[in-house]
What we know:
The protein is 77% helix and 0% strand. The chain is built from eleven helices and no strands. Helix 1 packs across helix 9 and helix 4 crosses helix 8 (119-127). The model is unreliable at 95-100 (pLDDT under 50).
Amino acid sequence: MTVEFLLTSLVIVITPGTGVLYTLAAGLSRGGRAGAVAAFGCTLGIVPHMAAAITGLAALLHTSALAFQTLKYAGVAYLLYMAWSTLRERGALSVDADGAPRTTTQVIASGILVNILNPKLSIFFFAFLPQFVSTGQGGPVAHMLQLSAVFMLLTFVVFVGYGLFAAAIRTHVVARPQVLTWMRRVCAGAFVALGAQLALTDR
């Protein structure tokens, strides 16, 4: 493992995307624990991409236009659904004062879907990790697993930080309905923008 790998991975993880947005929304609407749970779900969403890269399925996504487009538009559809749910106060940025709150399983499942329906993660693992994989001790697969585990750990730690930050300012937002409405619109708009960006993405 090199410093270059750690720095590059950190930059990629810190850069705001669907996972960061979902974790911020969870922490903002339900507190630090929900933010940490969302971060865990988003981190688990990396596992299928890692498995795809190791087994060669990422190569299929890279070479098959149909496979890539199918996964891409499934991701777009889910992001638009997240935007719609957020505006209807039933999505990531809903505050359930009277109704039943979302369960831990629901928060984790949504976090997994947010990251699993992102074909660019598979391409990232396919194109990025091999540059740092050594063929020496332990073999390339073992080294890729090690690097992937480090990337997932960085993701979890950074995302938990995002969630705790959102939880820290939660009282200032929830106590002001106008601010919460504004935040819902911003989050919904961000989900739509990310969906549009993904729709326009080429392999």
